[in-house]
Design a protein that fits this description.
The chain is an alpha/beta fold and 731 residues long. The chain has 22 helices and 32 strands.
Length: 731
């Protein structure tokens, strides 16, 4: 008798066995409905066998077969099953993570059959003037004579259903199922937009990638900011689409989607879809279905778009490949960039990793000749490198966080009709509220973190657990009304700039101002209109945006990033600095970058300003090699948390002993911890960590696989929440 192994969306590292139903045969990768306890749950078939660890008379039959074919293309199925083993995460949660919410809930995984209005032979031969007494019907027939109309899109043509039904009664038009031409976008791909003149470096990169488009190759497209990486993407995608293949483009942030989408829509007469977390469930399902059946030519999306099924995928592009947003930091802690490389290998297609600041992991793979590097070292057109200067705040008075030389430069650029970008990676009005009398500081009771003041909403907010309190009028400890605001956030910066530059529009772009759908697109549209304008933003504004009228960029407060216990801090800061400074002078206008700091002699700043990012990266790689840190070693991070700050540390201590006593443990394994997390308390829970490092990824994986079944037997395991993160990025 056949036994069906089924993965259910549960945090359990196992599948469940069921018997075949009487009325059908399930498919591996398809959904079924099964009894689980007193409920019915939807699961995914992972295998069909003849054996079970349970007696067959103990197994229940499948209640319903939902799909008659797999939800996953073969290559994607192999990737997800590999990821289940590599990241040591429950199969059901991984497989369901890769599906739209409505598919998880049991909705059909096929495109609905759509109908269209078309003109009959009688309608083609009738004289339009015969309908002059019914002008609306005449208009509808005139439009239909130009081609069929989707029955859901008749409002776009400003005609009503009643006119069409009247024409149908006269046998002049009728309804039919749409005849889909999957590759109807294959022809006449290019729109009438003006083609950009490519330079020698761009032409060379395009040529070598297109000549190798039939096989798997990982390309690092390392181009300085403004070097025209997007134009390279577009030209290569044009080549891919002309072969009837599809393209997947990943971007790190939702904020980049509107601008890159506009570039693609301007370039291609082809269906382009976007996929990110701000779409509703119906929109996400629609994109998933269109890509799967071949209706969409290009999908542009954030991290989870990697799991979109395609009919004929031809290329994957990872824009800003260095960005840590590609790493999922809770639940299933996968890295979209790394899985994308694995998917490209399974699909036997090229993948392009584009960035001005390659991650050290990617550069390490280039040195090992696993990846091939292409360099775009010059800015496109007449754009030239921006002038960079440090402003020593030890010697300069500040006006609301702005030095006099910066204010002077701002006035010069704005007077010339240019735009100024001020980067401050701290949203809200101010990071600290304290009492002048008793030095009380408003702290979140659930986290080891100060409350951030949000003046416009009149509340205090914790940016870790998102808890809120009303903004107090007096000190809750001593009753004093002398409450002092310390530090500056983007909201306060916007407030102080308005009287300093009363005639200049100020645009603030951060998570608080772009929370509603469409607001980011509106802000970007205002910026693109040109003219004097001040832009204020956090990291959201720094990544990949093209602002041709920005000629002055200033980083207001970055000193905190120069002194961190995180060994990746220098890399992240260097990438951020290059990305932010790259927003200046992207057109033919000269650009300037001013960095305010109390530490102008810091070696990292001097390296970046005098020698550039690649010089820093090579130095950092050598330091990592000597210290035995990633990417020269593989790393796994165990996290545990509790409410009393006792059980989590004790649990990890027991886990340490379990690892240390394992027969697979060797002298090359390093165990570090247990230690408190960098932010030790969040949401009322205390967080502890245990690090494992080993030069061999294979050996480390063997060890983890061997000890995982024993972890839940640790005495305190049921008293804590624990997880593991393979190849962690954030700590």
């Amino acid at each position: 008798m056949s036994v069906v192994n089924i993965a259910l969306p549960l945090p359990l590292a196992q599948t469940f066995d069921y018997l075949l139903p009487d009325n059908g045969f399930p498919i591996v990768g398809g959904r079924v409905k099964v009894p689980f306890g007193c409920r019915q749950k939807i699961g995914i078939v992972t295998a069909i066998s003849t054996n079970s660890k349970l007696a067959l008379d103990k197994l229940k039959p499948i209640s319903e077969i939902i799909d008659n074919k797999s939800l996953f293309p073969n290559s994607l199925w192999r990737i997800l099953n590999w990821a289940i083993d590599y990241y040591h995460y429950p199969a059901g949660e991984v497989l369901f993570h890769a599906l739209p919410a409505l598919i998880r809930q049991g909705q059909p995984a096929e495109m609905a059959l759509l109908k269209e209005w078309f003109v009959t032979e009688q309608g083609k031969n009738i004289l339009l003037d015969s309908l002059k007494r019914a002008p609306k019907q005449k208009k509808a027939l005139t439009i239909l004579l130009q081609g069929p109309i989707d029955c859901h899109k008749i409002k776009e043509y400003q005609i009503g259903n009643s006119e069409l039904q009247a024409l149908r009664t006269k046998r002049l038009c009728d309804l039919r199922l749409q005849k889909k031409n999957i590759y109807h976008w294959k022809y006449n791909l290019i729109s009438n937009c003006k083609q950009i003149q490519l330079n020698i470096e761009q032409i060379s990169a395009i040529d070598v990638i297109c000549r190798n488009d039939h096989k798997f190759t990982t390309w690092l497209l390392a181009g300085v900011t403004g070097s025209g990486k997007t134009e390279v993407y577009l030209t290569i995608i044009e080549h891919i689409l002309a072969q009837g293949k599809q393209a997947l483009v990943l971007v790190p942030e939702i904020g980049l989607t509107p601008q890159i989408l506009a570039r693609f829509q301007e370039r291609f007469n082809a269906p382009i879809e976007v996929l990110h977390s701000r779409l509703d469930n119906k929109e996400r399902l629609s994109v998933w279905l269109k890509a799967r059946c071949g209706e969409s030519a290009i999908v542009i999306g954030t991290r989870s778009a990697l799991f979109t099924p395609f009919m004929k995928l031809g290329i994957i592009i990872i824009d800003e490949e260095h960005d840590s947003s590609y790493k999922q930091n809770d639940g299933w802690c996968y890295h979209a960039r790394d899985l994308a490389v694995f998917r490209a290998k399974e699909e036997k297609i090229p993948i392009i990793l584009g960035t001005a600041t390659p991650s050290l992991e990617t550069l390490y793979n280039v040195k090992r000749q696993k990846y091939r590097q292409l360099v775009l070292g010059q800015r496109t057109g007449n754009a030239c490198s921006s002038k960079q200067k440090l402003l020593n705040l030890k010697e300069l008075p500040l006006i609301h966080g702005l030095s006099a030389p910066l204010l002077k430069k701002m006035k010069e650029h704005l007077k010339a009709g240019k735009q100024v970008l001020l980067f401050l990676n701290r949203r809200g009005f101010a990071p600290v509220l304290l009492c002048h009398e008793c030095v009380w500081i408003s702290e979140c009771q659930l986290c080891d973190h100060y409350h951030t003041i949000h003046q416009r909403q009149r509340h205090l907010r914790c940016h870790y657990c998102n808890s809120q309190l009303p903004l107090p009028n007096q000190c809750p400890k001593c009753g004093s009304i002398e409450l002092i605001i310390v530090g500056m956030g983007t909201e306060q910066l916007e407030t102080v700039l308005l009287p300093l530059f009363p005639e200049i529009p100020v645009t603030r772009i951060d998570r608080d101002t772009t929370i509603h759908k469409g607001t980011l697109e509106n802000y970007l549209a205002q910026v693109e209109l040109g003219g004097a304008r001040i832009l204020i933003g956090t990291q959201m504004l720094a990544k990949g945006h093209h602002f041709p009228n920005v000629t002055l960029v200033s980083l207001l407060d970055v000193d905190g990033a120069l002194f961190s216990s995180d060994f990746r801090a220098a890399e992240h800061f260097s990438q951020l600095y290059i990305q932010v400074s790259g927003r200046a002078g992207r057109a033919c206008k000269g650009g300037e970058v001013l960095l305010q700091t109390y530490h102008p002699e810091h070696p990292l700043l001097k390296t970046l300003l005098n020698h550039g990012y690649m010089n820093f990266a090579n130095q950092a790689l050598e330091e990592r090699r000597q210290a035995g840190l990633p990417p020269f070693t593989s790393q796994v991070l165990f996290r545990a948390n509790d409410y009393n700050n006792r059980e989590a540390g004790f649990f990890l201590s027991q886990l340490y002993q379990l690892l240390d006593n394992s027969p697979l443990r060797d002298n090359l394994l390093r165990l570090m911890g247990p230690i408190p997390a960098l932010v030790p308390k969040r949401g009322g829970r205390f967080y502890w960590q245990l690090f494992l490092l080993h030069p061999s990824r294979f050996q480390l994986q063997r060890l983890i696989t061997a000890i995982l079944p024993s972890i839940n037997k640790i005495f305190h395991s049921h008293k804590v929440k624990w997880s593991l993160d393979v190849d962690p990025v954030d700590y």
